[in-house]
Design goal:
This protein is α+β, with helices and mostly antiparallel strands. The protein has a domain of 129 residues: Endonuclease/exonuclease/phosphatase (Deoxyribonuclease I, Chain A). The chain has a six-stranded mixed β-sheet. It is globular. The termini are close together.
Length: 261
């Protein structure tokens, strides 16, 4: 069977309008991925200029935060028409923040997710953990039905000590708490694969850096952006990578190449 390779990129842009001013569109048109998933767009479609809503050769799908302007939001651009696009994954408590978009491409179902950050308060940490558990329950059901699943986005947690520059200093900080890391253990135990670690086991590979401390210049960062695939789809993965040279946000893009019929 002839297979074609799709290139999927994911990027927390920390404000799509802000990233646009820093050359986002030029980068996008130079890269030309088959699918581009964005998180933390911080904008409703009617707040975006036409050139971001209508990119030649792509269909664009936006999820705006329903209740709070300038917060959260995800978007997907694709040159392949999906069979179905859904905003959210079910529970209103989580979908009202505009964090999830699901695109069905037939050969796989793609989840573009901006997972919650738990640093603001104990309440937000509880919300994050509840989101985690509800999301895993949802994708677990789909996987049990035999679906091939790709999950991408800002997970807001570094999994192992190798995934951040200063592990010991951050053991009690949300983003590296034992319960957050344990959820990633559970996700993997349930049959989801951290695709980047299929190809690269080295330290110093990060996707987020604190802007205030100019941490990027020293590569004092965290790997909190991921592509996970269900085990059934693992053999389709041809490459997974980080693009740390791409600026315009406090995160950098990550990529996944997959073979499909």
């Amino acid at each position: 069977m002839f297979m074609t390779t799709l290139r999927i990129l994911s990027w927390n842009v920390n404000g799509l309008r802000a990233a646009h001013k820093k050359g986002f569109l030029e980068w996008f048109l130079a890269e030309r991925p088959d699918i581009l998933c964005l998180q933390e767009t911080k904008a409703a479609p009617d707040q975006l200029p036409p050139e971001l809503k209508e990119v030649e050769g792509y269909r664009a799908y936006f999820v705006a935060p329903a209740e709070r302007k300038g917060y959260s939001g995800v978007a997907s651009y694709t040159n392949i028409e999906p069979a179905e696009v859904k905003n959210g994954f079910g529970p209103k408590r989580f979908d009202r923040e505009g964090r999830t978009q699901v695109l069905d491409f037939g050969d796989f179902r793609l989840f573009n997710v901006y997972f919650p950050n738990g640093k603001a308060s104990a309440e937000r940490l509880r919300y994050k953990m509840a989101f985690y558990d509800a999301f895993l329950k949802h994708v677990d059901k789909l996987k049990a039905k035999g679906e091939s699943i790709v999950i991408c986005g800002d997970v807001n947690t570094a999994h192992k000590e190798v995934d951040l520059a200063r592990a010991k200093e951050n053991e009690k900080v949300s983003g590296f708490l034992p319960e957050e890391r344990a959820w990633l253990d559970k996700l993997i135990a349930r049959g989801f694969v951290d695709t980047f670690r299929m190809f690269n086991r080295e330290a110093g590979q990060y996707t987020w850096w604190d802007l205030k401390t100019r941490a990027r210049e020293r590569n004092v960062g965290w790997r909190i952006d991921y592509f996970f695939v269900s085990e059934k789809f693992e053999e389709n993965v041809k490459a997974a990578y980080i693009l740390p040279e791409v600026e315009g946000s406090d995160h950098c893009p990550i990529g996944l190449d997959v073979a499909v019929p």
